Amino acid sequence: MPYTAGEIAAHLEGELVGDPGTFLTGFASAEGAKSGDLTFAENEYYFDRAEQGAASAILVPSEFCASAKVLVRVKNPRVAFARVLPLFFPPTQFCPGVHPSAIVDSTAIVDPSAFVGALTVLGAGVRIGPNSIVQSGCHLGEGVELGEDCHLFPRVTLYPQVKLGDRVWIHSGTVVGSDGFGYVFDSGRHLKIPQVGSVVIQDDVEIGANVTIDRGALGPTVIGRGTKIDNLVQVGHNVVIGDHSVLVAQVGIAGSTRLGSHVTLGGQVGVAGHLKLGNDVTVAAQSGVMHHIPDGEKWLGSPARPDRQTKRQLIALQQLPELLRRVHELEKQAGIER
User: Fold this and answer.
1) CA distances (Å), 257 to each of 215, 221, 246, 254, 273, in order?
2) Peptide bond into 2 cis (omega under 30)
């Protein structure tokens, strides 16, 4: 639906420069915008491109000045961008109810406001909370619980006893609660250790596509409140992740490791088992973590070390060819043969 520039500014608690009655019917990039669109510019480069484009209004930082176009000035354009997009691209609406092809155990409880899609299986004792959405082809094992406003995209599998808080989103192909990788070598073979724990996912967590989160061997694997997990991440058994952490694509965390709150793991980071990473820790992409990391530190490399130490080593490596050349020249001058 269309909005006026004044309504958009009020929604974002921003300052409007220009005609508040300007109608805005969509949101687009500077290059793809047409008349009636709102666009986004967080720096001068994109602002210049937006001014040259066809957009009717531009979302900009508060210090940006006059333009031929309507401006909506805000403190943080990226936050405002995230808040305004749902106005122009509202999520798909699902009518409450259970699809006739769904298989629902007689002991399962589905809130009347929830949606359960085609070919979904709900096991014994499953509980689906208010306004939650379970799309087609999902499988929820015995005792699984979903809180309010959860959204499972197609083909999500939740093994028995998995517990989700409120507003948890899990994207397609993800498996939560599969057995942890637990074995003991006995009499020449690997003997499986039964994995009888669970997984607890707290409020406001979003999990990407094709993620695997293992159930605990005894107690739960825990994903803390507000944490965001990208696609293709592996979380081992009994891992505990604190609040508001970020795991980028292809991260792997081995069993029984504990992450604090506000931890960021870059793409393809590997973390060994039974480690502790403190609060506010950042690990750069493709690093291999083999040691505990104290609060607030930034590590990188494989094996990972504190970033300043690793950067000094990398600089030294870059200087090594020149150093070898100089040593060779000195050896020639001294008459030393290799």
Assistant:
1) 13, 10, 15, 6, 5
2) no
- Where in the chain are the domains? 3-88, 97-306
Edge-to-edge strand ranges of the sheet holding 103-104: 103-104, 121-122, 139-140, 157-158, 175-178, 212-214, 234-235, 252-253, 270-271, 288-289
Which DSSP string corresponds to 262-289? T-EE-TT-EE-TT-EE-TT-EE-TT-EE
Return the structure tokens found at 246: 């970020």
Write b or e for each residue in 216-248: b if 16 or more Cβ atoms lie within 10 A of its Cβ, otherwise e: bbeebbbbbbbbbbbbbbbbbbbbbbbbbbbbb
- The identity of residue 160, as a single letter, is P
Of the candidates 139, 237, 274, 328, the residue annotated as catalytic is: 237
pLDDT tens digits along 155-174: 999 999 999 999 999 999 99
Would the pLDDT of 338 be above 80?
no
CA 282/CA 248 separation, integer angstroms: 12
pLDDT of residue 331: 84
CB 194 within 8 A of CB 212: no
Beta bridge partners of 104: 122
Phi–psi pair at 175, nearest 5 degrees: -120, 120
In this structure, whether the domain defined by 97-306 belongs to CATH 2.160.10.10 is answered with yes
Residues in the chain, overall count:
338
Q: Residue 92: in which H helix or E strand, if any?
A: none
274 catalytic? Reply is no
- Region 297-310: mean pLDDT is 93
Question: What pTM value is reported for the model?
Answer: 0.90
Q: Which residue, 87, 92, 100, 152, is CA-closest to 126?
A: 152
Which tokens in the block code for residue 212? 């695997």
Measured in degrees and rounded to the nearest 5, phi and psi for residue 90 equal -65, 150
3-state secondary structure 109-123: EECCCCEECCCCEEC
For 3-88, CATH gives 3.40.1390.10
> Could you read off the pLDDT of 66-93 as tens digits, one per residue?
678 999 999 998 999 999 999 999 989 9
